[in-house]
Design a protein that fits this description.
The protein is of the alpha/beta class. Helices cover about 25% and strands about 30% of the residues. It is built from nine helices and 18 strands.
């Protein structure tokens, strides 16, 4: 287990060694975001944020999720539901009554470390006022708000052709990096470098599944649908109906994992179709004994849901992967606020060990927040970011 203190990182981008084949976010920067100032966090394949209440664990995950949504092409208002709450505490408005926040990340991959930094104005109007994409010390894209009366920023991207840069307007409510494939022709080596770096960043950001299992909703029978697990895992029974039929091997692994984390004997997980067409989930205890999942405790239900997430993939989760990039070249990142919520120490450790095994394979990464982390001692491959004062 590696402990990573919450200290400002050096300006240069960090790179894991060896360079990952699949793009992934290896650093989260909160230059000025809510209670965080000049903070940078190194992210490993399995990272846990820990610290007392109010230390900023949830805020760090919120910033990561917002960057992921911007990378997927959503507008600012959708990525930040309450942007004013993201402004650093105590920040005073300037002469034009403007206040905002700054976040960023580094995505490592075949192109090496690529840095993205974004400045957002939250008041009086929500807009991106500055963005910078860099690689190897070279600025590939830079935007700035020149005319507050227009809903655009002036952008300049690397060309390395007859002119060193190309300039043009971009909307101020979208991430420019995600729009570059629509604006850059790719006819020069410089333009191709810009496109490759932008693609690496977008691929690293987009494949994110935010998971917050809600035991209250998981207890009720649900109708059959698309079979893709929702953020709150309230359709768990429907997904189990699908996975048991489509992938017996992974379902067997899930049953074994659930048996390790739930009280009593567990030999299988079942989904039973009821007369009204809905399905409910059951634990098969053996010898004909079946326990509806609705009778389990909150900790057991969260454990079952998170184990399912770790043992499945984008085809079963409600995520938006990059369709034009093969799945083998993408890494799913799972964000879990309250990874150990409602669980006892044994359950939390069993789940963490499962996560460590899955993350070691390289097709999944996990960033979670926990109230305390002493129960994780000795688990290999875990990076702990301690936000304690």
């Amino acid at each position: 287990m590696t402990v990573s203190p919450a200290l400002p990182l050096p300006d240069q981008a960090r790179r894991t060694d060896p360079r990952p084949d699949r793009p992934c976010v290896t650093e989260l920067r909160l230059s000025a975001f809510a209670g965080h100032r000049r903070a940078g966090f190194t992210l490993g394949p399995l990272t846990l944020f820990t610290g007392p209440s109010g230390s900023g664990k949830s805020r760090a995950l919120q910033a990561y999720e917002a960057l992921a949504r911007l990378g997927a092409g959503v507008d600012l208002a959708e990525a930040f539901g309450d942007p004013v709450s993201c402004v650093p505490e105590g920040a005073r408005p300037d002469a034009q009554r403007r206040r905002g926040f700054r976040i960023g990340c580094t995505a490592d991959g075949p192109q090496g470390p690529v840095r993205l930094d974004v400045a957002v104005q939250a008041e009086p109007e929500l807009r991106i006022v500055g963005e910078r994409l860099t690689s190897g010390g070279l600025v590939l894209l830079e935007t700035a708000l020149r005319d507050p009366q227009r809903a655009v920023v002036q952008a300049a991207w690397h060309t390395a052709g007859s002119a060193p840069v190309t300039r043009g307007p971009l909307p101020d409510d979208r991430l420019g990096t995600a729009l570059l494939p629509l604006r850059v022709a790719g006819t020069t080596d410089g333009q191709r470098r810009v496109l490759a770096a932008a693609e690496q960043m977008v691929v690293a950001l987009r494949s994110v599944f935010v998971c917050d299992p809600g035991p209250r909703w998981m207890r009720a029978p649900v109708p059959l649908g698309a079979g893709r697990l929702l953020r709150g895992c309230d359709n768990l029974a429907e997904v189990l109906w699908r996975t048991r039929a489509e992938c017996g091997r992974r379902h067997a692994l899930l049953a074994a994992a659930v048996g390790a984390g739930c009280a009593g004997r567990v030999v299988d997980l079942l989904s039973e179709r009821l007369d009204d067409g809905t399905v409910r989930a059951l634990l098969d205890r053996g010898d004909g004994l079946l326990t509806p999942l609705g009778l389990l405790g909150d900790g057991e239900l969260r454990y079952v849901a998170l184990a399912l997430v770790l043992l499945t993939g984008p085809g079963v989760l409600a995520v938006d992967p990059v369709g034009e990039v093969p799945a083998a070249l993408q890494t799913l990142t799972v964000l879990v606020d309250g990874f150990d919520r409602c669980m006892d120490r044994r359950q939390a450790r069993e789940l963490l060990e499962l996560a460590a095994r899955m993350c070691q394979r390289g097709h999944i990464r996990l960033v979670g927040a926990v109230s305390e982390v002493s129960w994780a001692a000795g688990v290999d491959g875990v990076t702990v970011v301690d936000l304690s004062p």
